[in-house]
Design brief:
Blueprint: H1 3-7, E1 11-16, H2 22-38, E2 42-45, H3 52-60, E3 63-66, E4 77-80, H4 87-95, E5 99-102, H5 106-120, E6 124-128, H6 134-140, E7 147-150, E8 167-171, H7 177-190, H8 204-216, E9 222-226, H9 232-243, E10 248-252, E11 268-273, H10 279-290, E12 296-301, H11 313-322
The structure holds iron/sulfur cluster.
Residues 21-24, 82, 105, 107-108, 173-174, 203, 205-206, 233, 275 line the site of iron/sulfur cluster.
């Protein structure tokens, strides 16, 4: 191939890891196994994971998505989503005699435990996260008297604590690593004795997907992240791609959402997908790009992921009893 042909070779740089994380895989399997074991309908409180394709597929198999427990008929099975719930949601379920299966990701549960522990020791907890996100609502519900939400560095000026020597920060699991550290730096300037969580709250999957995006972004004129608009980790990946030097970065629900004009003058396209996105949606995007001359796909691997989580114990118990 001549040098100029090489230079204009249209290609896709496909980030790895991408797509399903261990927590999403477990949550989706939980609903699938519950449907198989109990039969339809199985009620699911909130979107089991933030991806429209996954929700529609499970609906087609008999899952019924609701916003709150009071929409679930008494005595029915209800699955709680991967994002976690406040203790009062468990209490409401018990009061309605619902059979609850908790598909909260164990890495979110870890943050709940931290919140409970620091609240028990009477700390003020500064929770970095996005207001209204289900995970933040669930974590805040563990210790509402002790938790103050801090959205970004600009919010730090308004944060007050009772005792600046007894203050700790925790975070939502799906934030931008860099932005979170900026917020922590701002908090630490205000509260020099601020303590950090015992281990990273931003989960391995969020960190790995962002690092893989960062490695590719400087080399592409266009970066596409497959994911739903309400998926926090997917939206953060788009921001990371733009900040790391991609010419343009867009979130797309699926191949049908790509605007062909985005490809004008583009030689290299970066591609990844959020932690709640099935690989078939990425395949559809690579097919769409191949049909427009971007058939050359190089997978760029940042790291291998091997983590997996067992199904929720209440479901495992049922499945064991059956076998
Ligand atoms: Fe769990 Fe992280 Fe996946 Fe959220 S993104 S479900 S915290 S592994």
């Amino acid at each position: 191939m001549s040098r100029s042909a090489q230079e204009t070779r249209k290609r896709v740089l496909l980030a790895k890891p991408r797509g399903y994380c261990a927590g999403v895989d477990r949550a989706v399997q939980t609903v699938e196994q519950a449907l198989e074991h109990y039969g339809a309908p199985v009620y699911v409180r909130k979107q089991i994971v933030h991806n429209l394709h996954v929700v529609r597929s499970l609906e087609a198999r008999g899952a019924v998505f609701v916003e709150e427990n009071d929409e679930v008929p008494e005595g029915s099975i209800v699955v709680f989503s991967a994002h976690g719930v406040a203790p009062e949601v468990h209490e409401q379920a018990a009061a309605r005699n619902l059979r609850a299966i908790d598909a909260t990701c164990p890495l979110v549960t870890k943050v709940h435990h931290e919140a409970r522990r620091f609240a028990k020791d009477d700390y003020d907890i500064l929770l970095i996260g996005h207001e209204g996100h289900e995970e933040v609502v669930g974590t805040s519900g563990e210790a509402p008297q002790h938790i103050t939400l801090v959205e970004d560095p600009a919010a730090v000026a308004g944060v007050e604590v009772r005792d600046p020597a007894k203050v700790v920060w925790l975070s939502q699991t799906t934030l931008s690593v860099d932005e979170t550290m900026q917020t922590v730096d701002a908090l630490r300037q205000k509260f020099p004795l601020l303590q950090s969580p015992p281990s990273d709250d931003i989960c391995y999957a969020t960190q790995n997907r962002q690092a893989a995006v960062k490695a590719i972004a400087p080399d592409v004129e266009l970066f596409l992240v497959v994911g739903s608009a309400n998926s926090s980790n997917s939206v953060r990946m788009v921001e990371v791609a733009a900040a790391a030097g991609a010419g343009a970065a867009h979130l797309v629900e699926n191949a049908g959402a790509i605007d062909p004009t985005w490809l004008d003058g583009v030689t290299s396209v970066g591609l990844s997908s959020g932690a709640s996105v099935p690989e078939i949606l990425v395949r559809e995007v690579t097919d769409w790009l191949a049909a427009r001359g971007y058939g050359d796909v190089d997978e760029v691997s940042h790291t291998e992921e091997r983590l997996s989580f067992a199904l929720p114990q209440e479901l495992r118990r049922e499945l064991r009893a059956k076998s």
